[in-house]
TrEMBL record:
Pfam family, one: DUF3352
InterPro entries, per the entry: DUF3352
Provenance organism: Floridaenema fluviatile BLCC-F154
Compositionally biased region (Polar residues): 119-130
Protein name: DUF3352 domain-containing protein
Region (Disordered): 119-149
Amino acid sequence: MRKKNKSSLILTTAAIAAIITGGAAAYWVLIQEKYSWGNLPVGADLIPQDALMALSVSTDERQWQQLGEFGTLQSQAAFQQSLTKLRDRFLTANGYNYQQHIQPWLGKQVTLAFLSPPKSTSQGKLTKQITPTSESENTESETPEPEKQSVVMVLPIAQPLQAKQILEKPQSPFNQNQWTEREYQGVTIKETKINEDETYSTAVINGRFLVISTDGRGIDRVIDTYKGGASLANTPGYSEALQKIADNQSFARLYVNIPAAAVAANTPGKQISPQGLAQIQQQQGLASNIILESQGIRFKNISWLKPNSQRKYKITNSADTMPQLLPANTLMMVSGGNLKQFWQEYVQGAQSNPMTPFKPKELRNAVRNFTGLDLDEDLVSWMGGEFSVALIPAKPANKANSESPNIGPGVVFMVKSSDRQTAEKNLAQLNELMSEKYQFKAEKTQLGNQPVVNLVSPVLGVKMSQGWLDGNIAFLTLGAPVTEEIVPRPKNNLNQNELFRNTVPSELKPNNGHFFLDIERMGVDTTANLLSFLLRLSPDITTQNNLRNQLSPMQAIGVTAAVNDERSTRFDIFVKLKKVNEGGTLPAPKVPQR
């Protein structure tokens, strides 16, 4: 399990991958009832509080049909294939048929939980390990193998009499597994061995829940919780967090135990520093409410700190200007309320997240090596206001000149200065260095009565432009000539773009920034290449193809973030999706050959 706190985009991609391309692991409990949820997901009082993650999913047939309309034919085919495997593994292989054995009694939602590894591995299998002690001598020792991940599913029993009649019947003839029974704290557990390493366990708890696990110890831990152990339901702040993102149209709700997930991810190859682990331990969790809408999927998210945490969030929701300064045809935009504060939090977060793509030290060295400036003292120090980074398409090449190629989009960086005098001094230093060290030619001009400095490299063909907007907003453009798109202020700005308005969530007011990505106009390949660079993903073909497959069903992504209070933050995501005429149907179950 890998948890990245830094990027809302990472969360978006992961969530869409899970739901659209086949990771919605609860789908085998297929569908039939209208539902409305209370504040807590079903089974929250049975799931151990130290669980890594819990996902509750509706069993409403209409919502699953709606989900089946999203995507492309290719993504839907992959989705159906994954669901078929899950159904055949959990139901068919064990003599169950959904319509016959599950549907008649199933409640309105099911919950899937991934339990944290046991604190001790003393019960695990022992393996021999050879430790070299000298050139001619080795020491043989036995160490426990890592415990396997326990996964449990909680199915509410809405019709107890029907459930009792069905579940007590003998299994179907084609199920050749031998079932055994055992007692644990007064609860009867039925188990069957799937293979050498996997045991399928079930138990009915209090006549209200059927609990299924891939590991007998997972069932035991659920029973321990039921008998009075700490549960997800009484996790500090959990109920209050869900209330803040409540929606009566919920399709699914997700919870991630941030400290437990970080500890589980703290492997030798991706070690988190002790200071980083201490920071993570101040966080409590992240919750997401997932809602299906006519044009896509909305994620209402909240993360919060532990009640006794020393850390507190600064409430600075002041990001509302940048979309007005960018043209309506902007392809991508990310903005925030205070760049200086954002950088400080990024540096702090990098200590606790080994997956941070760009390490602060790398960025500092890159700026110093290229410009001779100190990133923190010479640049970030005066950037204490709202900021944005955007991609703007260049104007089409002149058709009359066949030698004039179409070029990619230009990059535009804007930031509101908190100290213009220092900013002007350091930008002048930058211009001087670019001229002396890289032979850039400085050209002063004016656009709409605004002074602009163009830096052009006759050798590299690179062009940079810089200037000021609205008195104290510095801008820098790089690549394609797009300065005229922002100077003077565009008449048709990004706020007037219908796709932007329909994609970027508007519920959080005031807010601390936005993210917008027009995948359809950008192109899946270009978007995949951009994200691979920004997220420092592996360049291998498999990784790139997986990313393209995840992006292919999407048209656009919008994110809005806000500091909710000193102990919680909100970020809402909307993913606008393509549609197919109708979702596919699952093939007939495959009867296992024993």
